[in-house]
Automatic annotation (TrEMBL):
Residue ranges of coiled coil: 159-204
Pfam families on file: MlaD
Name of the molecule in the record: MCE family protein
UniProt key word rRNA-binding: no
TM segment ranges: 6-25
Domain Mce/MlaD: 36-109
Superkingdom, taxonomy of origin: Bacteria
Keywords: Coiled coil, Membrane, Transmembrane, Transmembrane helix
Taxon lineage: Bacteria, Bacteria division WOR-3
Amino acid sequence: MRKELLIGSFSLIAIILFIGGVLWIKGKDIWGRERIIRAKFTDATGIQPGVYVYFRGVKVGEVKRVKIIPYGVMVEFSVQKEISIPSDSKVYAESRGLFEDKILFLVPGLSSQALGKDMVLEGIRKENILENLGRMDVKEVITALDELRNFAQTGEKTLKEAEIFLKDLRKKLERIETTATSQMESTGKALKELNLTLKELSEDFKGGALGHLISDTLFYQNLLKTLIRLDSVLERFQRDKGIRVKLF
């Protein structure tokens, strides 16, 4: 009797493990930690059972079933029960690469109402690059490539013209600098000679016969002020290497 009881117990355990393994292989939730959510797509190309479902960048489930319904395709997928999903959420089907299957992205909405058991979310399928290229006319592609090539050639030509302009501008600036330096040297020399001449004239005015003809010292004082201003100009010229002219 005891032996038969042991055999029956082991058989029951084996059956339970077998059923659990089959359910696990099929993706069934054995422990009841998931809920099934449905989304309606107009086109479910690339969506098949086993495709992963992501929520805020985290894998939270996978597609369980894809079936055709009037005016669309119903996709059923599992999501962890603890995740709160607003009723206005959307499901996007996107591709990671050119040839890979779609991946579902559950994007939460802003509604304060939670998703009910019988509610169906809106499914949006995004096309990949190859699908978009398949709809394009070959002539349009060639035209776009020609425009891109022309744009690249124009940009290269513009860069070359800018380089030539900068080189020419640099040469002109070097010539201007050389001319300005020579002019400053000649101007400084002329100012020094003028200063010396005015000093000699002032001495002649002060001690010569012409000085005695002047009844007062007003002319002499004005001449001294002029010499002082000239000395100031020479000092600024030597310090700043240039002359600043102010008309008004």
